UniProtKB/TrEMBL annotation, chain A:
This is Cell division ATP-binding protein FtsE. The keyword Cell cycle applies. Its main location: membrane. Belongs to the ABC transporter superfamily. NCBIfam families: FtsE (TIGR02673). The lineage of its organism: Bacteria, Pseudomonadati, Pseudomonadota, Alphaproteobacteria, Hyphomicrobiales. It comes from Methylobacterium soli. SUPFAM superfamilies: P-loop containing nucleoside triphosphate hydrolases.
From TrEMBL, chain B:
The chain crosses the membrane at residues 42-64, 187-209, 245-271, 291-311. This is ABC transporter permease. The keyword Heme does not apply. It comes from Methylobacterium soli. GO terms for biological process: cell division.
Length: 236, 321
């Protein structure tokens, strides 16, 4: 943290990157490399798309950032911390600074929409009364004010999507990862959700959106990280 | 509270009225889903195992208390039997045997059974109202043994055999009562062993069930990790759920065991009038497990729930590591 404060500057290029990959290679078991020699930096308050054909390794790259898998070779740093051999306490600390929207939402079916969205605050051990107002406000902001007592199986695809996004945002993350966040909704709602991410980015969160929807990417002038056959190219 | 109400009132009046939270909104449901068929089965398994362990503990307690009564009785008494013989003065023999016993250190008191008392002892076998004056009925002298100095019964037996061979003999009941109490101790030991085994079985059943629950709730665990839950938080969530199940099973099992002992006590009391009842009572007292028995049954219920909670927590921690 001290180091970050020292290097902090108004120029985003001078700040410590939120995520840094250096020559990262990744294979599952004895299979072929899914990612080869991937190097990039995600700067604070930046907005980027991660794209490429299906099976190009987008989800693996997101999982590496999420620290749910470790690279076979190369270095991965998240919030300035090199993640090989990281302790489980430090891992939890890093995850609490990230928000993630999964392609399949991953809402817990036995919890209400309210409880699902409140989950990141609840696992920090906070009392329910301390975050109730925040959760309700966010639920109303994403248009789920009337649906907060509903269990996820009864929500529509778009409602689930918004609940998953609200859950990713509730703890005010410094980094937001979204895997195909508009894959399950109609184009109109997809554009509205994209605007939500842009707003969030303006408030200071770094955003990475994995998508192969070129129509969506054309709506925002942002850096594109293109994965193809396990290799990464940066455009823009 | 009053202060909060007054500060909030003007704001509520000026701002557009917000729709209230639904009164039925659930806010803190358990993170690990409950009330599945598997949880009910586990609670049933814990209840059955607790019931069996509690039965064992209660039975061991009955035997242990009976055994200590037997031991108490045997350490305080011995009997000299004086047999009548042709041409012998029985009363003189009795007086001599009593004198020998009294001379022995550690004999607190002696009591000679009169002829009438000795004959009454034969009543159960020969019936009442018989004239036994012609029968050579042996006579008994009971010896009350002192705690200190400890009487040397072996020496007394030798002295009696030397002074009055074939006439007086010492019976200290110790041998067969010792065998009985050894058997009782073995029974108590086996009971404790079975209780321990049943508790281990409970632990293993819980470990398997926890692993099953972890596998079944893999998605939940993964999501909890991604939203920033640490392993300890997740282990606590599982522990809470399994402790609840263990408590339910333990209470049901211990309750059933208490009911079973109550019922057995009632049945034993109803039978007491018959000859079988007398034998049962001679062996087990009033078939009453006493406060120590009730306490151990309840303790087993509590231990089963605690074992369930701890084992599930350890299993989750190992699973996550």
């Amino acid at each position: 943290m001290g180091e970050r404060a020292k290097t902090g500057s108004l120029l985003s290029g001078a700040e410590e990157p939120v995520v840094q990959f250096e020559n990262v290679g990744m294979r599952y078991g004895l299979g072929p490399e899914v990612l080869s020699d991937v190097s990039f930096r995600i700067q604070p308050r930046s907005f980027q798309f991660l794209t490429g054909p299906s099976g190009a390794g987008k989800t693996t790259l997101l999982r590496l950032i999420l620290l749910s898998v470790r690279p076979t070779r190369g270095l991965v740093s998240v919030f300035g911390e090199e993640v090989s051999g990281i302790s489980s306490e430090a891992l939890t600390g890093l995850r609490r600074r990230m928000g993630v929207v999964f392609q399949d939402f991953r809402l817990l079916d036995h919890l209400t929409t309210y409880e699902n969205v409140a989950l990141p605050l609840r696992v920090q051990g906070r009392a329910e009364t301390s975050y109730r107002a925040e959760v309700v406000e966010l639920l109303r902001w994403v248009g789920l004010g009337e649906r907060m007592h509903v269990l996820p199986p009864l929500l529509s695809g778009g409602e689930k999507q918004r609940a998953a996004i609200a859950r990713a945002l509730i703890a005010r993350p410094e980094l937001l990862l979204a895997d195909e966040p508009t894959g399950n909704v109609d184009p109109g709602l997809g554009r509205r959700l994209l605007r939500l991410f842009v707003e969030l980015n303006k408030l200071g969160t770094s955003v990475i959106i994995a998508t192969h929807d070129y129509g969506l990417m054309d709506l925002v002038d942002a850096r594109r990280m293109v994965l193809g056959q396990g290799r990464l190219q940066i455009e823009g | 509270m009053a202060e909060t109400a007054t500060t909030q009132a003007p704001r509520a009046a000026s701002a557009a009225p917000e729709p209230a939270l639904p009164p039925t909104l659930r806010r803190n449901a358990p993170l690990v889903p409950t009330d599945s068929a598997a949880s009910r089965s586990l609670a049933a398994v814990i209840a059955i195992l607790t019931f069996l362990a509690a039965l064992c503990a209660g039975a061991a307690e009955i035997v242990a208390s009976s055994a200590s009564q037997w031991q108490g009785a045997v350490t305080q008494e011995a009997t000299i039997q004086v047999r009548p013989g042709p041409g012998r003065d029985l009363d003189a023999d009795i007086a001599r045997a009593e004198a020998i016993a009294k001379a022995e250190p550690g004999i607190a008191a002696t009591r000679v059974f009169s002829k009438a008392e000795a004959e009454r002892l034969l009543e159960p076998w020969l019936g009442a109202g018989l004239d036994l004056s012609d029968l050579p009925v042996p006579r008994l002298i009971t010896l009350k043994l002192a705690d200190s100095p400890v009487p040397d019964l072996k020496h007394l037996r030798g002295t009696l055999a030397a002074a009055m061979p074939g006439v007086a003999s010492l019976d200290d009941h110790a041998l067969w009562l010792q065998r009985l109490s050894t058997m009782a101790n073995t029974f108590v030991g086996v009971g404790i062993g079975i209780v321990a085994l049943v508790l281990v079985a409970t632990g293993l059943a819980v470990a398997f069930a926890t692993r099953g629950a972890m596998a079944g709730n893999k998605e939940v665990v993964e999501v909890l990790h991604f939203v920033g839950a640490d392993d300890d938080f997740i282990a606590r969530a599982f522990q809470r759920r399994f402790f609840g199940l263990g408590l339910r099973g333990g209470v049901i099992g211990a309750g059933l065991a208490l009911a079973a002992f109550g019922l057995a006590g009632l049945v034993a009391r109803a039978w007491r009038s018959g000859p079988a009842g007398e034998e049962i009572e001679a062996l087990f007292g009033a078939f009453h497990i006493g406060w120590r028995g009730y306490a151990s049954v309840l303790l087993i219920g509590v231990i089963a729930s605690v074992v369930t909670g701890i084992v599930s927590r350890l299993t989750v921690r190992r699973f996550l590591a």
